[in-house]
C-alpha cells in the first residue's frame, strides 16, 4: 500500500492569499480558522488537510488540483538549475540535499531563488551597459571627475591650508579687490552685454578683472575669489591633480581644474578654521553662516561638505543639487554615504518638493532600505544675473547627514533621532525593494512583476514571490 505523505503548501497558500489581496486575519475569517493557524500553514509548520483543501476550493472558487499542486518538486528543480551556475561549480551539492531544502525550508528556497534572480539580472544589466561601448561609463569625464572628488571625500588638505594662509594675506591687504590692486590687477564691474554675457572675464592685456555688475554681492565676491584661485593657487591645484594617476581624457582634467578652483574660492571666502568654528558655534545654521561670511546659501552648504580636516572634523554632509526635471548637476560627498553615487531620484525625498515652496527650508528624516537613517535639509536656490528679462535658473539643493549627528544641527535640536518619524526612500527605484511604495517608477532589479488578474493594488507593481 502506497504511503500517504503530508501535504505542505506554505508558499503556495501565501501567494494565493496575496493574489486575493487578503490579510491572514481576513483569510482566517473566510475559512473559519484562527489567524495563527493560517500563519502555521504558510510557514509549513502544519500540513494542509483534505478538509482544508475543500474549504479553500469552495471559499475562493478554485480548482483543487491548482491548489494542491506540490511545489516541492518545482522548487527542487528550480534550485537545481540555479545551483548549476558556474559560480557554484566547486561545491558538492547532492540532489538529495537540494530536495530536502526545497521541501523542508521553502522560505530559504524562495530567498535563494530571489537572490539569484537579482544577481542574474544585474549581470545582464552590466552586459548591456558594456555593449554600449568599451568603457562607456568608466571613461565619462563627468563620472571620472566625480569619482576623484568622492575618493578624497571632497577634502584637500594642502589646498585648504594654502587657502587659509592666502586668506589671511588678503584680509591684511584690506580685501580681495585691494589685494589684486597691489598685484597690478584692477577689478571692474560691467554690464553683461559688454562682457558678452560672461559672468567673469580676465583682460590680460590691460590687467583687468571684469565682473558682471548684475551679480549679487556674494556672487561677485565668489567670482573674484575664483580668479585668485586660478592664478595665485594654480600650481597648488595642479599639484593636487598630479598626485593622481593619469585621467582617461583631457576633459576630465579640465573639469577637475574648474572644480578645485571653486573649492579654493570657497576656502578663501570661508577659511577652514574660522568657518568650522563658526559652524559649531552657530549649530550649523546656514543662514547665520551666510551672514557671517557674506556668501550664498549654496556656497555655505557646499563648504559644509568639506569639513573633514583630521582632528577638526565637522558634521559629515552629502550635498546634491538638481533642477525641476530631476537632473543632478552636482554631487559632493563628505561622509561616504551609500546614495552618493546614484541617489537623488526618489520622489519621496523633500529635495524634489521644495520647488512648490521656493526659498523655504524643509527638513526631513530619511531611512534607506538597509535601515540607514539620515537627516536632510533642502531648499531652492536661484542662479544667473539679475535684471528684467534676464534668465534665472531655479534649482534645489539638499544636505544630508547621518541621523546620529543631527543633534549638532539647529534644525534638529531637541529631537531624538530614534523616535523621529522617518520617510522611507530608496537610492533609485531599480535598487529599492520596498514593494509597498506608491511612488515607484520602475520595478527593482531581481523582482518579477505579478499579473494582476485578481488584484490591483495602490502600488504601481505587484511582485511575484521569486
TrEMBL record:
Domain of life from the UniProt record: Bacteria
Pfam families in the cross-refs: HTH_3 (PF01381), Peptidase_M78 (PF06114), ScfRs (PF09856)
CDD domains, alphabetized: HTH_XRE
Family: Belongs to the short-chain fatty acyl-CoA assimilation regulator (ScfR) family.
Record keywords: DNA-binding, Transcription, Transcription regulation
Coiled-coil ranges (or none): none
Name of the protein in question: Short-chain fatty acyl-CoA regulator family protein
Residue ranges of every copy of the HTH cro/C1-type domain listed in the record: 13-67
UniProt organism field: Novosphingobium album
Amino acid at each position: 500500500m502506497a504511503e500517504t505523505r503530508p501535504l505542505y503548501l506554505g508558499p503556495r497558500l501565501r501567494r494565493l492569499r496575496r493574489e486575493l489581496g487578503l490579510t491572514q486575519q481576513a483569510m482566517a475569517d473566510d475559512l473559519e480558522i484562527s489567524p495563527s493557524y493560517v500563519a502555521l500553514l504558510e510557514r509549513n509548520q502544519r500540513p494542509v488537510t483534505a478538509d482544508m483543501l475543500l474549504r479553500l476550493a469552495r471559499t475562493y472558487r478554485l480548482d483543487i488540483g491548482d491548489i494542491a499542486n506540490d511545489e516541492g518538486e518545482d522548487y527542487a528543480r528550480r534550485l537545481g538549475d540555479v545551483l548549476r551556475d558556474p559560480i557554484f561549480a566547486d561545491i558538492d551539492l547532492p540532489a538529495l540535499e537540494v530536495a530536502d531544502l526545497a521541501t523542508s525550508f521553502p522560505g530559504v528556497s524562495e530567498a535563494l531563488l530571489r537572490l539569484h534572480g537579482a544577481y542574474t539580472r544585474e549581470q545582464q544589466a552590466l552586459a548591456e551597459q558594456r555593449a554600449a561601448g568599451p568603457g562607456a561609463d568608466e571613461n565619462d569625464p563627468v563620472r571620472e571627475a566625480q569619482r576623484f572628488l568622492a575618493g578624497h571625500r571632497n577634502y584637500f588638505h594642502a589646498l585648504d591650508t594654502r587657502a587659509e594662509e592666502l586668506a589671511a594675506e588678503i584680509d591684511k591687504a584690506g580685501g580681495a579687490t585691494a589685494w589684486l590692486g597691489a598685484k597690478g590687477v584692477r577689478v571692474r564691474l560691467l554690464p553683461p552685454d559688454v562682457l558678452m554675457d560672461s559672468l567673469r572675464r580676465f583682460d590680460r592685456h590691460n590687467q583687468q578683472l571684469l565682473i558682471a555688475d548684475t551679480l549679487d554681492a556674494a556672487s561677485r565676491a565668489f567670482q573674484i575669489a575664483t580668479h585668485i584661485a586660478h592664478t595665485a593657487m594654480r600650481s597648488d591645484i595642479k599639484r593636487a591633480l598630479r598626485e593622481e594617476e593619469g585621467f582617461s581624457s583631457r576633459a576630465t582634467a579640465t573639469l577637475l581644474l574648474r572644480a578645485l578652483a571653486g573649492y579654493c574660492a570657497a576656502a578663501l571666502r570661508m577659511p577652514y578654521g574660522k568657518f568650522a568654528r563658526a559652524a559649531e558655534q552657530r549649530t550649523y545654521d546656514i543662514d547665520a553662516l551666510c551672514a557671517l561670511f557674506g556668501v550664498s546659501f549654496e556656497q555655505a552648504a557646499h563648504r559644509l561638505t568639506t569639513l573633514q580636516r583630521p582632528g577638526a572634523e565637522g558634521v559629515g554632509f552629502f550635498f546634491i543639487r538638481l533642477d525641476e526635471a530631476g537632473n543632478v548637476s552636482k554631487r559632493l560627498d563628505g561622509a561616504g554615504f551609500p546614495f552618493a553615487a546614484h541617489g537623488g531620484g526618489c520622489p519621496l525625498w523633500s529635495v524634489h518638493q521644495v520647488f512648490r515652496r521656493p526659498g523655504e527650508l524643509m527638513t526631513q528624516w530619511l531611512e534607506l532600505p538597509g535601515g540607514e537613517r539620515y537627516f536632510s535639509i533642502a531648499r531652492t536656490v536661484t542662479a544667473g544675473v539679475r535684471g528684467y528679462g534676464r534668465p534665472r535658473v531655479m534649482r534645489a539643493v539638499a544636505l544630508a547627514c547621518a541621523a546620529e549627528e543631527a543633534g549638532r544641527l539647529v534644525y534638529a535640536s531637541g529631537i531624538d533621532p530614534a523616535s523621529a518619524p522617518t520617510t522611507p526612500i530608496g537610492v533609485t527605484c531599480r535598487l529599492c525593494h520596498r514593494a509597498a511604495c506608491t511612488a515607484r517608477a520602475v520595478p527593482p532589479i531581481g523582482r518579477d512583476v505579478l499579473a494582476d488578474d485578481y488584484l490591483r493594488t495602490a502600488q504601481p507593481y505587484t511582485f511575484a514571490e521569486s
